Inverse folding.
């Protein structure tokens, strides 16, 4: 099973991807993870990516695709994979198509999570992260709230709201997604691979995806 997971920040891509990994015995691949892995491994393309990251520049698509090519050929991808957070733009999608063709691989589906904006804003602005760098536990005021307000259940450290999870920043992130990534829905609809599920509960969305994949 080879899948792409699309959805706005806070739509539950990571949560649902983990469910897909357990169900289909595939691996979850995120751009951030493979970039950090390549840098840590000190591969030639990892060193190239690190140079951009140290300068504070965006890593070019060509470098990301090179790292992705290496990752998709690793043994744990034989059963399949789910791409979380990639592609983000039409040019990346086109480049991914060429890469998969080169590797003689075909996608089975592109799963698109259609979650109401109000739900996403409430979910992201309600997140609180443990300030202890060795813990980093995540809580949510709208669901998994800490037992004691502002205090981590696990280590007793102070909980903080990340800078990128304030309402103004969340709205800006959603606008960026709409401008750059949402057009991918139209791109993949033309291929017949698009599988859209709508709602707000990750478990419900996951079950709907599984049912649609069976068809």
């Amino acid at each position: 099973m080879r899948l792409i997971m699309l959805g706005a920040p806070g739509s539950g891509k990571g949560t649902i991807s983990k469910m897909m990994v357990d169900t289909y015995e595939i691996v979850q691949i995120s751009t951030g993870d493979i970039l950090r892995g390549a840098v840590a491994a000190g591969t030639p393309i990892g060193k190239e990516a690190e140079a951009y990251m140290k300068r504070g520049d965006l890593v070019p698509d060509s470098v990301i695709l090179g790292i992705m090519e290496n990752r998709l050929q690793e043994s744990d991808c034989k059963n399949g994979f789910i791409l979380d957070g990639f592609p983000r733009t039409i040019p990346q999608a086109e480049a991914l198509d060429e890469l998969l063709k080169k590797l003689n691989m075909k996608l089975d589906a592109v799963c698109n999570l259609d979650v109401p904006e109000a739900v996403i804003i409430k979910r992201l602005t309600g997140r609180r992260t443990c300030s202890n760098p060795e813990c980093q536990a995540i809580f949510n005021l709208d669901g998994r709230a800490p037992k004691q307000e502002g205090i981590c259940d696990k280590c007793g450290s102070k909980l903080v709201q990340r800078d990128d999870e304030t309402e103004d920043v969340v709205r800006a992130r959603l606008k960026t997604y709409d401008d750059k990534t949402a057009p991918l829905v139209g791109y993949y609809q033309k291929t017949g691979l698009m599988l859209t599920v709508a709602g707000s509960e990750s478990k419900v969305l996951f079950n709907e995806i599984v049912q649609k994949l069976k068809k």
User: Anything to note?
Assistant: The chain has a mean pLDDT of 92. The chain has nine helices and eight strands. Residues 116 and 205 are 13 Å apart (CA to CA).
